[in-house]
Amino acid sequence: MPFDPVRDAVLNSPQTPSQVLSVSHPPTPQTPARSIAPLARRPTDLAALLNADPPRTSTLAHLLRTDDDDRLAAAPALRKLLKYSPRNRISPADSILKPMSQAEMNMYKGYQGHGAARLAKRKRETPTEPDPDQPPAKKLATDVAVVVDHYNTRPEVGVAQRETSPIIGLKSFNNWVKSVLITRFAHPALAASKLVGRGPRAPRGKVLDMGCGKGGDMTKWAKARAAEVLAVDIAAVSVDQARSRWQQLRGPSFDATFAALDCYTDPLSKAFSPAKLATPFDVVSMQFCMHYAFESVQKARCMLDNVSRWLRPGGTFIGTIPNADQLLQNLEGVPPDAPDLTFGNDVYKIRFEDRVHKPLFGHKYWFYLQDAVENVPEYIVKWDNFVQMAADYGLHPVYKEEFHDVFSENREHAEFGPLMVRMKVVDANGESAMDEDQWEAANIYIAFAFEKR
């Protein structure tokens, strides 16, 4: 009989045995036309197969048999009367559903088999004592880890892609403010340096770019004709990107050394050799990063010690930080019945966790800036507290302005006015590239300069 899978499926479907089926095949050159007698459909349920006497085997020939007997025909009834009771089983009948004891569960927890156990013996065992030649692994605190992960995972984009940012006007304005700050306070300090490079128009001076990020100020230090720059940041991936940006600078550049270090918990001497720190800095720059140090008084003091210890007398400390007065004023303006302590606009948002408790250190809020910062924890820097602490390290303020005021006092400056056009803060007609939301976001920062005495 030719193999017919459809016929076999029909004949062996679990139907009642009273139904019969006549099967016929069309003639072929090899086989003449013939009919097969009506066949009763075999029950194929597990109860009938297992309780047959003698036991039936689950083979194709067995399923195709047509000489069924009464016992199999009565399988639906047998299913209710007979129980599954194998004759040659190995394990006791009551062991299948018996729960494991606690000792057994402990034994099999994490068990991988004898082969895996033998293989594990060949692996190098983890030393119980720390290696004295290796520095201990440092576990980052929760907030620090969030900040590091954020800046490490943000991609470094080219100049062309940066121009397509939805807040390109704000980014250009912030860059312009930094350029004004560096020109007004860093250039004179570098010009007065005793560190002089070689060649015509020799570069001069040494800079510590603390919190260098992805190297956004490398071009500014090249234009300042610095002789040497030490750049450090807590985010190692960002440090690598800053190094790449320095390597791609066009024209004469400065000597540069890059390192990944948490400058709020460790001294600079952990990242740079004594030879690198032997010549003092003329300028220390901290742009949009110093506020992270104000998580605790210990971190703030470690940061100030790193700024001052290797800065020469007469040297300059410049930076940009959030405007604490404005942030706290906006916090007070949040309605009492508001669902959360959030304010801002489409460009930036700030969310505080507490309206009443306002500590000098660790006063945390969450900051979002479109296409730049994705909800990271930051800390309020109260200006008077900062000034008092800085005085303990010989640092005294010489400049402090909100970003809006930096614009007002320098937009008609002979150098900084045209610079605004070149940096695309405004066009040739004086029209700003920022909308109202970006302009509001710009003023959540202040620029400052200190002198070491």
TrEMBL record:
Give the UniProt entry's GO cellular component terms. nucleus
Which segments carry the region annotation Disordered? 1-35, 113-139
Record's catalysed reaction(s): a 5'-end (5'-triphosphoguanosine)-ribonucleoside in mRNA + S-adenosyl-L-methionine = a 5'-end (N(7)-methyl 5'-triphosphoguanosine)-ribonucleoside in mRNA + S-adenosyl-L-homocysteine
Polar residues bias locations? 12-22
The UniProt keywords, alphabetically, are: Methyltransferase, mRNA capping, mRNA processing, RNA-binding, S-adenosyl-L-methionine, Transferase
Tell me where in this chain the MRNA cap 0 methyltransferase domain is found: 165-453
- Tree of life domain: Eukaryota
Write the Enzyme Commission number(s) for this entry. Answer: 2.1.1.56
Q: What is this protein called?
A: mRNA cap guanine-N(7) methyltransferase
* Lineage, top ranks: Eukaryota, Fungi, Dikarya, Basidiomycota, Agaricomycotina
